[in-house]
Design a protein that fits this description.
The chain contains three helices and two strands; from the N terminus they run ββααα. The protein is mainly α and 124 residues long. A hairpin with a 5-residue loop joins strand 1 and strand 2. The radius of gyration is 15 Å and the shape is globular.
Length: 124
């Protein structure tokens, strides 16, 4: 499972970082249930990735939300990083969530390879 959970290692974890829920309460990822943590990650993923990258439970629609100005691009990047890091420490991730995490990781990994190919190569 951990092979799916290695996205942005260059980003540092911020001590005390917390996710802000829709009702305005703040929670540390370590205090959140594993499935809730996954659902938050998937919600962010589906709101920020192109449609071909969306992940969902088969037969269920994707719920979309309107985020307040609190949820800046930088905050959402931090959220992905902190939640992904916490999930990588969990041993109770359901199989269906592991599959979706694998789909996210495959898309992310493919995009990184594509971007690397598109970078101009140094000329000698």
């Amino acid at each position: 499972m951990k092979k799916y959970l290695q996205l942005d290692k260059s980003r540092e974890l911020t001590t005390g970082w917390k996710w802000r829920s829709k009702n305005g309460t703040f929670r540390s990822p370590t205090s959140m249930e594993t499935t809730h943590l996954f659902y938050v990650l998937r919600m962010i993923w589906n709101h920020t990735m192109p449609q071909q990258a969306w992940v969902r439970t088969p037969g269920r629609p994707i719920n979309f939300y309107i985020f307040s100005d609190f949820y800046t691009v930088e905050y959402m990047k931090d959220a992905i990083h902190h939640i992904w890091a916490e999930l990588s420490n969990r041993t109770d991730i359901p199989v269906w969530a592991q599959i979706q995490l694998g789909q996210m990781h495959s898309y992310y990994d493919h995009r990184l390879r594509q971007e690397h190919k598109e970078l101009p190569h140094a000329q000698g």
